[in-house]
Each structure stands twice: as C-alpha cells, then as structure tokens.
Amino acid sequence: MMNDKSANEERLMADTQLVRDYLATVPHQTSLDADQREGLRSKIKTLLQEKRAVLVAHYYTDPEIQALAEETGGIVADSLEMARFGRDCDADLLVVAGVRFMGETASILSPEKKVLMPTLEATCSLDIACPIETFAPFCDEHSDRTVVVYANTSAAVKARADWVVTSSIALEVIEHLKARGEKILWAPDRHLGRYIEEKTGADMLLWDAACIVHEEFKAKGLFDMKALYPDAKILAHPESPSSVLSMADVVGSTSQLIKAACDLPDKTFIVATDQGIFYKMQQLAPDKQFIIAPTAGNDATCRSCASCPWMGMNSLEAMYDTLLNENNEVHVNEELAEQAMKPLRRMLDFSQQKQIAVKGKA
C-alpha cells in the first residue's frame, strides 16, 4: 500500500508533468533589452489612455507589469479585488494581467465591460485539476454537503458551487457554515482545505488538487534556511503543505502576508509563496529583507521555482498586442455567468455583513 509521502510525491510528479506538457505547446517569449521594454511600456500607456482602459494586475505577475498597472491608474491586488476594482472603475475596457479564472471573474462582475487578457493560455494548476466534467458528478454523489470552492476555479465550477471564497475569508465562511450544522465539500486545493479543516474542526470532504508553486515548498529546506537566518520570521500561504505551515509565524493570504511584512517589527522574512509578491513587499517595507523559501527543485515547473509559469506569460509584448488589436477577449456565457455570480454574491454579502476585507491569493 502506498504511504502518504509516496502518494504526495506521485501527485506532485503528475502535476509537474501536466505543466511541462502544457507549456511545451506555448511559444516562448523573446528577450527584450531595456530600450525595447521601455518602448513597449510607453506604447501601452498611450493605448490605455486612448482606449479608456485600465490595467489590473495580480501580485504574482512580473514586477514590471505591476509597476505599469500602478503608474497608469490601475491596481495590483488579489483576484477578487482586481475584479471589484474593474467593476467599480469608470473604464470602458479592462486588461487583466493574471490567469484565466481572474479574467472570467472580472467578466462576471463587469458584464457591461470588455475584458481582455495578454494571453488566454495563462491558466492555473488548480483550475486544470478541477474540471467541471468530473467535479459536477462528484458534487452530485455528495449532495448532502454544501459546496465551497476556492476562487482559483473556472466559471463553470463556480456556477456549480454554493459558495466561492478567497483565502482570507475562507476560515470565516467555513466557521459560519459549521455553526449552521452544514457539512462541506471543498475544492480544489487540498492543502488549503486541510488547513481550514484543522482550524475550524468542520466536517470537510476535500478535492485532491494542489498549486504547483506552493506544493514545492518543503519543511526540510525551510528548516535549513531558518538555521541560516535564525531571527527571520516565516510567512506562508495556506496553499503550502501542512509541514511548512506548522513552521510558519504567519499563515495568510497574499494581502495578509504583505500586511504582516509591514506590521511586524522584524527585519528579515522567509516567504513561502510566489516570489512575485516581493514587488509589493519591498515597495511597502523597503528597509526589510525578504528571502524566498526553498523548493523541491530548480526544474519543478519547467521555468523557475516559486514562480507561477502561467503568470509569467503576461509579457509586455503580449499586452501591447492585446491592447492594439483588442484581441484575447474573455467571454463567459451569460447563463453561466448568472449562475457563477450567485456564490460570488453570497461571499460579497457575507463579507459586508461581517466587515471582513475580502482579499486573498486567488
């Protein structure tokens, strides 16, 4: 019988191979020198202004993309805050720099606006690992459970759910449902689900999927890194394995980790999440040192560890082409969008009632 360690390693190998196979079909980006990059930045700024467009970027995109969003009146945030900002701004056109489910969420919340992405090929391992074709029957088999899905899912999966949550509000929502005596079917991230289950004591049935970035953080490497920096605090996203979370001083969503980095008096932090977050951390806490947590291996995602390969597909070249030609538009079926909006609205209403800031990785 396969032990838990062997099963986890096998899952990681399968997830990694899935990424390799997928990325092998995607054209590699060309290298640009400083003048070429600055030229594209200037052209993108002009097009954003001419087209009454706004750029919304995720914390995990390239620092150059995040800076461009801030310089042009856009936002750098988690997926839901990106969508909410897009909904509330007066732009006619939204350019979403992130992965596909983020573009879908923006489209669902802003059906009257045109939503573009630098590439529609940028997806997410959690989204891929939870296809509606297998998820819907799984829900039907456990119809006695309330279906709660993480924001890192397709519009179709959201439409099948009772609740959609981000990592910063998930604990509160599950505690609320537990108090009502409800049993939970959770998807897709098993590490985040297990963390919530342990914290709340709720009866949770977990879908078996993981983020390829966070899955690679290992307790042994973290222990060795802590020996090198004994005074450092460890910040970890709850998509990381439980052995990593048990060593963390702070476990939280992207926005919660950024806040901790700013609020804690410590000067050195080991961070177990995508290293794209360093742009905002260093911007808000320039006097502090941030060190990426060790991962399983340098070729684990085909490009680089602790860096989502799909987020890396949001290049300046792709963004310029998308804005110029208004291609790569995100389309969500109207009926599907209406269904997906119900669990999203349930979360937004719950957040407002509880006065919880809904910010997270997803």
TrEMBL record:
GO terms for cellular component: cytosol. Its EC number is 2.5.1.72. One of its GO terms (molecular function) is metal ion binding. It comes from the Bacteria. GO terms for biological process: 'de novo' NAD+ biosynthetic process from L-aspartate. InterPro entries: NadA (IPR003473), NadA_sf (IPR036094). It is an enzyme of class 2 (transferase). This is Quinolinate synthase. It comes from Pseudohongiella nitratireducens. The lineage of its organism: Bacteria, Pseudomonadati, Pseudomonadota, Gammaproteobacteria, Pseudomonadales. The gene is nadA.
